[in-house]
Design a protein that fits this description.
single chain, Cytidine Deaminase, domain 2, 3 helices, two-stranded parallel ribbon, 8 strands, six-stranded mixed beta sheet, alpha/beta
Length: about 130
Amino acid sequence: MLVLPRTTAIELMHAAQLSPDRSIAGVLGLRDGLAEGLTPGQADSAESLAHACDQAEQAGGVFALYYSQPAAAAEPHDLPQALREAATNRPLLIVSLNTKGVLETRAWRWCEGQYIEQTLTAIEPPTAA
């Protein structure tokens, strides 16, 4: 199961909404054990995705890769090759804009030659004491 703070889930969906006609991609960082911070990359560029992963690693770690599909379901079909290769050892979150009302985000992990859906749960982030 992947746990995503609600604020980070909203940030990811908002970034996808800002590009309704083009896919976005990048790396979702990890800070203090929680997913946080989007580092944009280009889904069709292995160098760009590697650079985004390096930036996230330096800032605290990599939680997952992300990708939006403006006109398709949140499923890993017809992914750019560079993104497929980068996501072989990390979770992949796919945001679909092809829904009415609520955006859909689903998580996938490459396992034994295929993508297996992972449970994705949004939580309220912890508050400072």
